[in-house]
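Can't paste images in this forum, so I'm doing it all in text. The chain is below; anyone willing to post the predicted structure tokens underneath?
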Amino acid sequence: MQFAIDIPNFGDFADPRLTAEVAREAEAAGWDAVWVWDHIQRDPGVPYADPWILLTVIALATKRVRLGPMVTPLPRRRPWLVAREAVTLDILSGGRLTLGLGNGSPIREFAAFGEEADLRIRAAKLDEGLAIIDGLFGGRPFSFTGEHYRLDEVEFLPTPLQRPRMPIWLATTWPIRAPFRRAARWDGTWPLRRDPDGISRPMSPDDIRGVCAVIAEERAAAGLPAGLAADPGAPFDVLVAGVTPADDPAAAAATAREFAEAGATWWTERINTSRGDLAEMRRRIRRGPPRP
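Text version of the structure:
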């Protein structure tokens, strides 16, 4: 299992200089990645920063950790601009980018800016956008005609530093099957749980076991190699996010171990205001990952 922190692109972390400092602290403390949220205006009265600029300062401030948006809502972005930004950041970081993509939430971030809020349409735009990004990463003349996007013989150079491209992870909603069918065709997934009552709840180890089983089934149905990241022949990452204490390393490690045994390949430590003030957030980062 590998270990990351994820930080919001708003509040204290809207300051790019602070974000760079925190990323350096995370790398020094032994974390394997720093992820950044991608929101425009989730809450009123709060300062926001552009997540891709935050990722740029993280790339410049660090040498080892992976980095990426977790996740960028592709339906409210132009896929070709995301492709260009991703390649540039992959090269700048020395091949450390993981590209997290999804449908996006909350709905207000679409509707308030005149963007399409209907989930079915956003899902269709996500599928088309993924095909476009993948096609542009090839560095050869590429055309695409879909319901929502059209490209006519375009060529994007340079290509990603990682070959054949950087990993693409898809956000998914457990236990809804359709998002996992999409995610299984790519390189990883970040599942979030939403119960029938519409309430979001933390993922459990049993949930992760279910996710791994569904991904394996969908990969087999699509003719992809069986297995998850534990199988070197068919790497597929399953990320789980949560909160572990800064002052009880044994309890933190026990939590991570449960999810690793269930099949998760990444633990992401939530670093946001739910932990308290900025000093408390940084204290958790400095204590390092909950390695079993």
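The chain has a mean pLDDT of 93. The longest helix spans residues 119-137.
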